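Need the bound structure for iron/sulfur cluster, inputs here:
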Amino acid sequence: MAIIVDKAKCIGCESCVAVCPVGAMTMQEGKAHVDTEKCILCGACVNECPVGAISKEATAKAAVTNTAGTDVWVMAELEDGKLAGVTLELVAKAAELAAKAGEKSAAVLMAAAADKLPEELIAAGADKVYVLTGPEFAEYNTDVYTNAFCELAQAYKPSAVLFGASIDGRDLAPRIAARLHTGLCADCTALDMDKDGLASWTRPALGGNIMATILCKEHRPQMGSVRPKTFKAQPAAAGHQGEVITFAVKNQVPQRVKLVKKEALSGSGTIKIEDAEVIVAGGRGMGSAENFKKLEELAALFENSAVAGSRAAVDEKWIGHAGQVGQSGKTVTPKLYFACGISGALQHLSGMKDADVIIAINKDPNAPIFQVASYGLVGDVNVLLPKLIEQIKAFKQA
Ligand SMILES: Cc1cc2nc3c(=O)[nH]c(=O)nc-3n(C[C@H](O)[C@H](O)[C@H](O)COP(=O)(O)OP(=O)(O)OC[C@H]3O[C@@H](n4cnc5c(N)ncnc54)[C@H](O)[C@@H]3O)c2cc1C
Ligand code: SF4
Ligand code: SF4
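Answer from helper R.:
Posting the output first, comments after.
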């Protein structure tokens, strides 16, 4: 879609300029003019124009649409210069999907310098690695990455692209999908591909009460995002051969957003919950912010541990959103998961049910959390939690 101004009809009243929420509409030589880079297609100007000079019109489809496309791509992500866990997980999945369709898997790497990263992606399962390097790729930037990815996709026409449903992936994937005029299935929990290369993307729908499987039959690339820990990475295979293809972006774009500085989070959130081996999670049943702090005492008894929460706990501001487990939070697969005062709603379970061992404390013996718990303690968390901490301390000292 695009906003079109019929200059012959425009009477220069400037009403559209006044209503545009993003400053995309300006006057040029007495007539309205749309900056298509800024326009968010909200339609406010269309409704405001007194003489019907503005309309929304469908634009010609981009070249990478319809049925053209081969290979299953993964957009690689870096964390402190190393491949992110979700990238390794998705590269393994892409290899599995591509094999079903008789296609190749590929990873797209954007970095200041490639170093050994292409080899690591190939060892993780990629048949090809597209490498884009330069100082502009040193840190994730929406404009730069979107522009570069779209140029690459226009040149090599992938069949499907997988993104990590990380902070950067969630920013990048929808923007690319919009540019390439294709669909995007966010936060998939299962993926498959038929022999003709048609991917099926499964994700929770209707508040998590059903699982919907979505097909993108008419547009390419097919696109989806997947949360970290949804799939398993494969052990690196030193013998796996792959092709490294360097790509130079032709059209540079201005960076509208710049990273000024990075600051590490302090306090108990220093280990990300998706990386923790032991998670102590609390829900509304913890009762107060002060009680919630007791979870840290339990977490401190384990190596590589983190405190997390249900959405109710996040809504109460007892913990930040980065610590939310579940459908609209993070998926975690720790060795040990304590669920304290958490009822076990479907949307919470979808984020933690694959933990190796689940210990639930809840005063309601019928709470759904007990259906997935390996061990259940029925009672008041304010009574049982201190006892549990005491017992573990005694066990460690013995
Ligand atoms: C689209 C959508 C997405 C969602 N995404 C998420 C998500 O990502 N993560 C998530 O967690 N939720 C999510 N939810 C919300 C979810 O449906 C639940 O509302 C939420 O998980 C409830 O949190 P809770 O278990 O902490 O609270 P509650 O459901 O209120 O449960 C509190 C539990 O604590 C117990 N309890 C109370 N007092 C004590 C005590 N003193 N000692 C022991 N036990 C006690 C109670 O018996 C109860 O079982 C989502 C909902 C929707 C619609
Ligand atoms: S559609 Fe919305 S954003 Fe675009 S020019 Fe009109 S008012 Fe501005
Ligand atoms: S509202 Fe219509 S007539 Fe007025 S300046 Fe905008 S396009 Fe022209």
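Comments: The mean pLDDT is 91. The first strand starts at residue 2 and ends at 5.
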